[in-house]
Every structure is written in structure tokens, then in C-alpha cells.
Amino acid sequence: MKNYRRELWFNVPQRFGLVNITSQIEECLRESGIREGLMLVNAMHITASVFINDDESGLHQDYKNWLEKLAPHEPTNHYFHNRTGEDNGDAHLKRQVMGREVVIAITQGKLDFGPWEQIFYGEFDGMRRKRVLVKIIGE
Amino acid sequence: MKNYRRELWFNVPQRFGLVNITSQIEECLRESGIREGLMLVNAMHITASVFINDDESGLHQDYKNWLEKLAPHEPTNHYFHNRTGEDNGDAHLKRQVMGREVVIAITQGKLDFGPWEQIFYGEFDGMRRKRVLVKIIGE
Amino acid sequence: MKNYRRELWFNVPQRFGLVNITSQIEECLRESGIREGLMLVNAMHITASVFINDDESGLHQDYKNWLEKLAPHEPTNHYFHNRTGEDNGDAHLKRQVMGREVVIAITQGKLDFGPWEQIFYGEFDGMRRKRVLVKIIGE
On the CB side of C65, how many CA atoms lie within 13 Å of its CA? Predict the structure, then answer.
């Protein structure tokens, strides 16, 4: 069994942002030399997500509007968490809707994807450096 | 390390549908011959889900009503994504609530499940052929 | 390839509760002797979750309030599922928001975590004994 590990760093300049990381993940896979196995890609921070969906700007605006409706940033004093001095209570909730991680099948040295699957880093409390973990096991 | 891959195809005749795929997944596991390992089952399309819950028709109606409340199909012009000519903006959101994938432990050649766990394909934009990927690694 | 399996039992005395299980999971990892691989931790019951987020009591109150707003317990006759004699229709919905499982990278014999990641058992229909499954594969 082979294994591979790498961290990817992001610094999204706004509070909210969705970053297509598919090509960086493909680069990790090439670097690993693994042909058959499973890949885990997860946010290492608890106010961010890794998820798979469509690279379409209208949809990304829809996600932003929808998440803001489900878990509004304002009023920040609505969240008990923000009594700790944080203002990111909403981001912890948004991250649960979008998920922490994806697990991806590796087949014949490729991400085993359907036609529109793209991997995104979802930032809900940006303006600082945060990490994604890539771990692959297989052979 | 052994690995196994198979695609399952579905054509749900309505926009929304939940299909119990547990027996098909068990058949994949038997075919793989893998006794100990991890199994990934994921939707290959970004308006569908694979999830684990109860096979109870009332609950399935509850999921339908609830998802429609969280991310209504109508009015379709509410979604920026639908300006591309699509009418499935809601389905991309519903899929995030229900999830893309499940990872299942394989123990002694069986799905290592609790008493009520069943695997479902969740369709939120049906009336066409779509795929689920099954990947197993182990020995 | 090595593999490891263990069940953890919980009996949350209220309907809703979030239990930090990180130290129990670390004990499983030590017991496994696995240094590089992937770990699956999943609820074996369909009205409970395993998820990763922050161990902060204000945030946990926020999760409780938010989930109750997204999928209220009352009125129980609002859910078709409850016509079966159950009163936990809401718990099946809450579990989908918070997720069934987490997959964790194992690196150099440790949970490969960011600075604030902690693992929780999320109970949405408590007052009875329920299980979490830990499965690790690697070497």
C-alpha cells in the first residue's frame, strides 16, 4: 500500500469564496503515483468546506445567497459562539451544510469523476491563511 | 490490496425520487470478493445524492417536503444558475443537504451496518439516465 | 494492509446532545497500531451523526437552536414518519444536515487534524443506547 499526503494553503480575500481546486488535486494525484485507491480531501479548519459540484458562477452566487439565508452572518450577536469574541458563528453552520470533506475514487491514475464534477474549497470565514489536507492511499 | 469498481445506472421517471440501492451494493461487494476494507458509493452527477437512512415511505415524503422548503424548485427564476437555460438550480442545493457520497466499512465480507441503515440514491433532477460509482479497496 | 474495527456505545440522557469523542477515537487508533491510512467513524443509527467541529459550548447551543429551526421536533404530527408511531421524524432530518460519518487521514500514527478539529457524536433522538463504528485501514 502506498500513501501520499499534502497540504494546500488558501487565503480568500473576502469572508465568502468558492475556489476550484480540481487542477491542484490532480497535480497531487500525479505526484503520488497512485493508480488505484481512495483520496480524502478535507478542510483542516472548521469554518470551511471541501465539496464537489459545478463550476458555474451563477450557481456559486446561489450557494452564497442560500447559505446566507440558512445561517445569516448578521446579526452577529444572534450566535452564542460569538460571545467568545468571534464573529464567525454563521460560518460553523454553513460549513455543516456544505460538508467538511470529499472522498474520491482513484481509477487508472485519474480522479474517477462524472462529467461535471469539480472540487471546491468553500470559505465562509476568509481573509486569512487556511489549509486543505490531501491524503491518498492505494497502489 | 484489491480494488473493485462498478457503475450503476438509474433513470428516475420524476424530478424527485429516492431509490433503495442496498441490494445492488451488496451484489457489488460479493462480486468484489473483498472481506475487509472501505467502500465508497457516490453520485457521479451534481444534482443527485447517495445517502444512508431509513426505508420508510412516510420519511421519504418528509424528506421531499423538507427539501422543497429549504430549496424550492419554483420560482425557477429565483436561481442565477437557471439563467444558463437550466431549471435545476434547486437540485444543486438539495444535493448539498443530502450529501454526495457515503463511505461504508466492509467487515467479514459484509456491509458493516447498524440495524436500520439502508443506502439510497437521491434524485433531485430526474427524467434522465444518471450514474452512481461504487469503489471498494481492501483485501 | 491492516484493518481495525471497534464499536463505541453512547446513552445520551436527553433527546439532543453533542459528545466529544476525540479521545476515544485516539485510543482506537493507538490500539490499531496503524500509522498511515484512512479511518471511518460513522453513526450506526439513522437519527444520529458523527461530525467534526469546535468544542465550544456556545457553538453547541447554536447548533441546537439552528437545527431546531431547520427541522423542528414539534408539532410531531407535522411528519409523515411519525404516523408509524415514532416521534423522531425531525431527528432523521437533523442527521442529514450534520452528516452520518467522517473520514480522517491517519499520518505517522496520529489523527491528521487542523488546530481546532474535534470529533463529535451528535444525538438527535437520545435516551437510549446507540452505537458508533470505527474502522481503520492502512499499515
Answer: 13
The count of other CB atoms within 10 Å of the CB of residue C91 is 26
Are the C-beta atoms of residues A139 and A35 closer than 8 Å to each other?
Answer: yes
Contacts of B99 in chain C (CB under 8 A): 96, 99-100
DSSP labels for A49-98? EEEEE---HHHHHHHHHHHHHHS-S-SGGG-GGGGGT-S-HHHHHHHHHH
Which of B42, B46, B48 lies closest to B12, judged by CA? B48
Closest among C13, C41, C17 to C27, alpha carbons compared: C41
B70: closest CA among B92, B38, B47, B93?
A: B93
In degrees rounded to 5, what are phi and psi of residue C121? -90, 125
Q: How far apart are CA A79 and CA A91, in angstroms?
A: 11
User: For residues B137 and B36, is the Cβ–Cβ distance under 8 A?
Assistant: no
CA-based nearest residue in chain A for residue B72: A66
How many CB pairs below 8 A link A and B? 91
Looking at the partner chain, which of B45, B89, B101 has a beta carbon nearest the beta carbon of A59? Answer: B89
* Overall pTM surpassing 0.90 (yes/no): yes
Provide the grid cell at C96.
442529514
B102-129 pLDDT tens trace: 999 999 999 999 999 999 999 999 999 9
Place of cell 415514532: C86
Count H helices, E strands: chain C? 3, 8
B contact test, residue of C93, C95, C136 with most B CBs within 10 A: C93
The tens digit of pLDDT for each residue in B87-101 reads 999 999 999 999 999
**CA–CA gap between residue A59 and residue B84 (Å, rounded):** 10
Q: Do B62 and C92 touch (CB under 8 A)?
A: yes
CB C19 within 8 A of CB C123: yes
